[in-house]
What we know:
glutathione-dependent formaldehyde- activating enzyme (gfa); alpha+beta; 133 residues; 8-stranded mixed β-sheet; 32% strand; globular
Amino acid sequence: xxxxxxxxxxxxxxxxxxxxxxxxxxxxxxxxxxxxxxxxxxxxxxxxxxxxxxxxxxxxxxxxxxxxxxxxxxxxxxxxxxxxxxxxxxxxxxxxxxxxxxxxxxxxxxxxxxxxxxxxxxxxxxxxxxxxx
Length: 133
């Protein structure tokens, strides 16, 4: 059974801080598709700009950030897709946090665009569905 995925790219201050670059990516999946094959996870939390608690999980051995999940949203988590063995199939359906994107970022194309976190992700899910079919 295929895993339902929603791939986004983010730009701006939050991406700069968490990735050490001008970009970050999120790959949203259902938690039942999560499988840890090896290693140990560490965890820390932070408040998002909307005051929600975000749980951030990372590899205790190398420190790489792996997952994000909202404390109040069960059943879904965000994988840092750059940590996947094969990234050749990744194609973002949306760009978020563009209000604080670097002017040279070149985030053009036919993706949905948001200055900040979208209030509703239905359009992103629909775009992903169209790309996946």
